[in-house]
Amino acid sequence: MLVGILSDTHDRADAMAAAMKLLRQRGAEFFVHCGDVGSERVIDHLAGVPSAFVFGNTDWDRAALARYAESVGVACHGASADLELGGKRFAVVHGDDFKLKQRLLSGQEYDYLLQGHTHTRADECVGRTRLINPGALHRAREKTVALLDTTTDRLEFLVVAAT
Hints:
Blueprint (H helix, E strand, L loop, with lengths): L1 E5 L6 H13 L4 E4 L6 H5 L6 E3 L8 H10 L3 E2 L3 E6 L2 E6 L4 H10 L4 E3 L7 E5 L2 E5 L10 E6 L4 E6 L4
Parallel strand pairs: 1-2, 2-3, 3-4, 6-7, 7-9
Antiparallel strand pairs: 1-10, 5-6, 8-9, 10-11
C-alpha cells in the first residue's frame, strides 16, 4: 500500500492542495496528516479519500475541527492514532508530546511511528520501529511530504512546489 504522509500545514490550503495532487499523482492510496492542520480548509483536501489525521499543538479549536472532520467523512483521531495500513501497524502523533512519543517507541509495538512538529523531515529506525517525519508544508525552507510503500518499505520524500 502507498501511504501519503503530510504534516504541519498550518492552514495553508494552497500548499495542502499541491501536496495532495502530487501524492495522488504518485499513487498514494491512504493519506495521513500528522497534525497542525490549522483549519477546515485543509481538512477539505482529505475529504473523499481514505485518510486520517491527528491534532497538533497549534490546532486550537479541536472540538470544532473534529466535528467538521466527522461531517465530511475524515477520520480525526485526537492526539494519537493507531492504524493498520497495508498489513503494517502505524502510530501517528504530532510529536510535541515527547513522553507519548518515547512511550510508543519504547513499547516496540509499531512498524512505523509517524510524526510532524519539527518541520524537518526525518527517517530513522528505533529498534523495530521506523520513525518518519515528512517535513512541513509551512515554515520550512523546502516544503515536503513523504510517500511510503508498505510492501517494499521504500520511503520517498517529495518536494511540494511553492504556491
